[in-house]
């Protein structure tokens, strides 16, 4: 059955209504992340913070990434294992060439092999490492945590013009309503993007 324009748009309108009064998440901006990265001396710590920012993944997903999960020669993608889903479903995210180079150096320097984890810390230790690095980089403590990088990634993607369903897939959200929370943060920027589209 073919949907009419009005019925096809209804779910998005419902989602927007639901998030209109929702509490906005703590997030960091791109300029804040870049400033923090410039101040991190340890390559592995810097790589973890940048990995979280570039992929928008959860800290548990980042800490489970192995050398074998990174495809250095086939388009520069990383497989993220969504631990919250049954069967440990994986999704793939592209990584910039410059960052792939950093990861390659890290792998060689540390002598890592296929099933070795890139970031060998526990979840609690990984959280502390990211928090301390962000605080040292000038980000206020309430926003200095891994999920603020995830939120910042989503908001940056949306304000750069990425469609909501693409951001949903990148973040591994099961329901697009969860992703639509970020529209309340991006506000006018997303509205301007949608106003240029022909329906």
Describe it.
- The protein is mainly α and 199 residues long.
- Helices cover 54% and strands 6% of the residues.
- The radius of gyration is 18 Å and the shape is globular.
Reconstruct the topology from this structure.
Blueprint: H1 5-19, H2 30-38, H3 43-55, H4 59-63, E1 70-71, E2 77-81, E3 90-94, H5 97-110, H6 123-136, H7 146-159, H8 164-171, H9 176-179, H10 183-186, H11 188-195
Antiparallel strand pairs: 1-2, 2-3
Uncertain stretches of 5 or more adjacent residues: 1-22
Straight-line distance between termini: 19 Å
Give, in order, the helices and strands: HHHHEEEHHHHHHH
Q: How many DSSP H or I helices?
A: 11
Average pLDDT confidence is 84
Helix content: 40-55%
Indicate the proportion of strand residues: 5-15%
The count of β-strands is 3
Rg of Cα set: 18 Å
In what order do the strands lie side by side in the largest sheet?
1-2-3
Strand-pairing-aware structural class: mainly alpha
Spatial shape: globular
Largest sheet: 3 strands, antiparallel
What structural keywords apply?
199 residues; mainly alpha; 3-stranded antiparallel sheet; 11 helices; globular; disordered N terminus
Structure summary:
The chain is mainly α.
């Amino acid at each position: 059955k073919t949907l009419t324009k009005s019925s096809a748009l209804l779910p998005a309108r419902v989602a927007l209504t639901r998030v209109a009064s929702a509490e906005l998440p703590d997030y960091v901006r791109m300029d804040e992340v870049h400033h923090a990265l410039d101040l991190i001396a340890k390559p592995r710590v810097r790589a973890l913070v940048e990995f979280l920012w570039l992929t928008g993944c959860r800290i548990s997903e980042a800490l489970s990434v192995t050398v074998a999960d990174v495809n250095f020669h086939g388009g520069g993608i990383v497989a993220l294992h969504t631990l919250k889903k049954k069967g440990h479903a994986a999704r793939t995210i592209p990584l910039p060439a410059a960052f792939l180079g950093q990861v390659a150096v890290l792998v060689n320097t540390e002598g890592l092999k296929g099933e070795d984890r890139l970031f060998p810390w526990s979840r609690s230790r990984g959280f502390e490492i990211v928090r301390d690095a962000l605080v040292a980089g000038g980000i206020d403590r309430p926003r200095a945590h891994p999920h603020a990088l995830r939120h910042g990634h989503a908001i940056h993607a949306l304000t750069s013009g990425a469609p909501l369903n693409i951001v949903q897939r990148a973040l591994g959200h099961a329901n697009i309503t969860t992703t639509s929370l970020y529209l309340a943060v991006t506000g006018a920027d997303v509205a301007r993007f949608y106003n240029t589209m022909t329906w």
